[in-house]
UniProtKB/TrEMBL annotation:
GO biological process: protein stabilization
Protein name (database record): Ubiquitin-like domain-containing protein
Molecular function in Gene Ontology: adenyl-nucleotide exchange factor activity; protein-folding chaperone binding
Classification via SUPFAM superfamilies: Ubiquitin-like (SSF54236)
GO cellular component: cytoplasm
Length: 148
């Protein structure tokens, strides 16, 4: 503990001890000054830039390193006009699950986006079955194989 003489030599009257990076709390406790680096709630989450290739086009995406591939798919849904369930993301020659995190992807990495045709057909078939059960899908269209 600092004696009252040493406190007076560092104290500028505002309760802050400038030269030592210390401050005196209202209760009289001497503590280290708080900064942005020492406050864990103010730590920023790094964003990474990913290049996503789809067909002959590519998209530059800025995404949080704590995001999942599912969130990346949702971000890509609008520019690619593909539903997020109809997408497959391939990184390092492996298809990535929507629940996996993007954290292992490095800055500037390239990810390939491929349309999942089987998934789209399966989802479309299930959707039509649900509409038939509710009675909102005409059976004639279902029998004739027409789609809209």
């Amino acid at each position: 503990m600092l004696s009252s003489e040493s406190k007076r030599s560092y104290d500028d009257g505002s309760g802050c001890l400038d030269s030592a990076g210390l401050e005196i709390r209202p209760g009289g406790m001497l503590v280290q000054k708080r900064t942005v680096e020492t406050n864990p709630s103010s730590i920023s989450i790094p964003t990474i830039k990913i290049s996503v290739h789809y067909g002959s086009s590519y998209h530059e995406i800025l995404i949080s390193s704590q995001a999942s591939f599912g969130e990346l798919k949702k971000m890509l849904a609008e520019p690619t006009k593909l539903h997020h369930l109809d997408q497959k993301l391939i990184y390092k020659k492996k298809e990535r699950d929507s629940k996996e995190y993007v954290a292992r992807v490095k800055q500037g990495s390239r990810i390939v986006l491929v349309e999942d045709i089987l998934g789209r057909d399966k989802r479309s078939h299930l959707w039509k079955q649900q509409l038939l059960q509710v009675g909102k899908f005409p059976r004639q269209m279902w029998r004739n194989g027409l789609s809209f």
